[in-house]
Amino acid sequence: MADSLSVPFFSKKLYGITLDSSGIEEYCRSERYAFFHHLKKIHNFGYIVTAHTADDQAETLLMRIIRGSGIRGLTGVQEVRADGVIRPLLGITKKELLCFLQKNGIMWRDDYTNSDTVFLRNNIRHNVLPLLEKLNPAIREHLVTLGKSATDVTSIVEAQYLQWKVKYVLDESDVHFELCRNGFSAAGMSEYLVRILCEHGIQCSHKKNAEIIDNCNETSGRLLVANGWSVYGARTSLIFLKDGFRIPEVNETITYQGETTLKNGHIRIVSQHSDVFVRNDDKHTAYIDSAFLKEPLVLRTVGPDDHFIPLGRKNEVPVLSFLESQGYSKIDRERMFVLVNVHDVVWVPGVRLSDRVKVTNSTKSITKMSFQLHAHIL
Hints:
This protein has helices at residues 24-42, 54-67, 94-103, 120-135, 139-168, 189-199, 206-214, 319-325, 330-334; strands at 48-49, 85-86, 169-173, 176-180, 222-224, 229-233, 237-242, 251-254, 258-262, 267-274, 285-289, 297-301, 307-308, 317-318, 337-341, 344-348, 352-353, 366-373. By secondary structure, the chain is an alpha+beta fold. It has three domains: 24-148, HUPs (Rossmann fold); 174-242, no CATH class; 251-373, Phenylalanyl-tRNA Synthetase, Chain B, domain 3. It has a five-stranded antiparallel β-sheet with strand order 3-4-7-6-5. A five-stranded antiparallel β-sheet has the order 8-12-15-16-17, with no helix packed on it. A four-stranded antiparallel β-sheet has the order 9-10-18-11, with no helix packed on it. A hairpin with a 4-residue loop joins strand 9 and strand 10. The model has no long low-confidence stretch (mean pLDDT 89).
């Protein structure tokens, strides 16, 4: 047929897997599209065109409903994808397509495995859909309409999701992301959670998603999610970490008088002389008696041996114990910082100043320090 149409023909054989191998359908689908994209790239083709019909769309939607799907899953097979895959036959049924082929004398090939009902799609095609058609002859049309409606809704949800993400996703990488606890009260949160989990390759059941949302106010402990991910409760957020991930340590020298930016701009500390001492509740600004500051000043991750006298107290305590007493969770404590003057902890930024360096009536010079954390370093 390719010769008669004067178009090139490409084929590829797969080895090392059989029809009864676990995950054969997904494996073959992945290999098939990888082959298509390879050809598209090396031959500079404009599109990958597949012959999915309305019947394929109906089967896909039923499969996703059976397996459990959110709104995005109900969009089904897309007519146009961003990666150059298009499906121009989604608007017609398989019956209409076969009639066209017969009328025009065009041969086609039936894959014999399509009759094997061991595979879910084939079971739906040969057993489930015919049964549903007895209840409603227009079931295929209704399923396709459902997919179109879900696509329209998803386009609206997509715009809202991007706005939600900008506002409530505090930090993100391939192996972690952090969600502000306030974001869990947003309308559509269940869909937003499914979306961000999928973006990180996390396939959760609806029950697990509901469990995460129900426990969004937990400030401690670990909840196993899926695909090697866990979620941890922090003071104001939930932190999702992939197994094996370790929070990187910070250990950098701070400019005594001036501005220091650390870790790709996430942390900024400004140190400057101040003529006045201002009492306020801003825990990210500290007024320090300059007489107690000696170089080097170092900002680093809090360690198990760090001690200080919290402002307003008389006795020295371990910094980690103090943070725990203030309600900071284990994962919060692991990513807190201390400002160290030679060997002494001067300040736990955002939490408490050391009583040793406080400004008093006998203070002759004041240093004002400001700490800005744009995103936690994970």
